[in-house]
Design goal:
The chain has 10 helices and 13 strands. The strands form 4 sheets. Strands 4-3-5-13-6 form a 5-stranded mixed sheet, with helices on both faces. A 4-stranded mixed sheet has the order 8-12-7-11. The longest helix has 29 residues. It is globular, with a radius of gyration of 22 Å.
């Protein structure tokens, strides 16, 4: 019989397409993971992946089986969570995932409040891109994820809106737009933007942020993080859009650049997401409210300054 452990190996390989990283994700050696998958293939009579010296390619049936395995593992995780909730009247361990354009700017204010409210609950935070977080939630590796919409999500997930997040334009001090405290989409027409590398949802959100204006990306650069983007602007390499959450949290503080409010932008929607089958929806809604209050503190500070 195919084991849950082998299913976890299969899902990890489908997510990473790399035996070494999949083994690390499962906390086993690479040889253990490889052996487990070969045993599963022998039992099922199909190949789940094509292996070469430098790459791994999931076969169509392997990808289908990995999708089914995610659903099974999520059900098992919820099955165990029901028993744990009955035993302890609450969660003792929360595995929270967050995208890198939200987590570092919101969680430092929120986590101390969460710990104070739930001193018996240990909080483990993992920072990944949206697709990896959604996969981790579906297969039970994560309990809760902090992401930004719009993004296509599977029907098994429930979302709770936390807040909408607008944008500011960051420019070098000598840039023609640096003398404006507020701009609109027409000011950006024909100008290229420095953006995060592909895979970050903010890259897509920024390009679609201005209604009726097709923003253009500066294809000569791609940053791995928001702090890198800020440094690139400060060095005069271009201009970029920064989410208000990050600038309110002090992302641009101490950098020689100018921020202009982008009026009329389509904001991204920051949400908390969990599996619909979870036994902890009430707790997760409490956590959502704590995150909203953490964001409100930044807004209060901005209004007072």
């Amino acid at each position: 019989m195919t084991t849950l452990r082998q299913m976890r190996f299969l899902v990890a390989l489908a997510e990473t397409e790399n035996f070494s990283r999949a083994a690390e994700l499962c906390n086993v050696t690479q040889s253990t993971l490889s052996t487990g998958l070969k045993e599963m293939e022998a039992r099922l009579g199909v190949k789940v992946a094509e292996r070469s010296t430098h790459s791994v390619l999931m076969t169509p049936v392997g990808q289908t089986l990995a999708d089914r395995a995610r659903d099974i593992l999520a059900c098992v995780a919820d099955f165990e969570a029901v028993a744990q909730a009955e035993l302890s009247a609450g969660m003792t361990r929360l595995r929270l995932g967050a995208i890198p354009t939200v987590g570092p700017f919101l969680l430092p204010r929120a986590v101390p409040r969460l710990r104070a409210a739930r001193p018996d609950m240990k909080i483990f935070i993992r920072e990944e891109l949206t697709d990896a977080l959604v996969a981790g939630l579906l297969d039970g590796r994560l309990d809760l994820i902090l992401i930004a919409l719009p993004h296509d999500l599977p029907p098994q997930l429930q979302t709770e809106l936390l807040f909408e997040d607008g944008y500011s334009l960051a420019t070098p001090r000598a840039h023609p737009l640096a003398n404006l405290s507020r701009i609109d989409g027409s000011d950006l027409a024909g100008r290229e933007l420095l953006l995060l590398e592909r895979g970050h949802c903010l890259q897509k959100h920024a390009l679609s942020s201005v209604p009726g204006v097709a923003l253009e990306e500066d294809a000569s650069f791609a940053a791995t993080s928001l702090p890198t983007l800020v440094s690139m602007v400060e060095e005069g390499l271009g201009i970029t859009l920064l989410p208000d959450l990050a600038t309110d949290a002090g992302l641009a503080a101490g950098h020689d650049l100018h921020l202009s409010e982008l009026a009329g932008a389509n904001p991204r929607r920051v949400v908390l997401a969990w599996r619909q089958s979870t036994a902890h929806a009430d707790l997760f809604r409490e956590i959502a409210e704590t995150l909203r209050r953490a964001r409100a503190r930044y807004l209060d500070k901005r209004a007072a300054s």
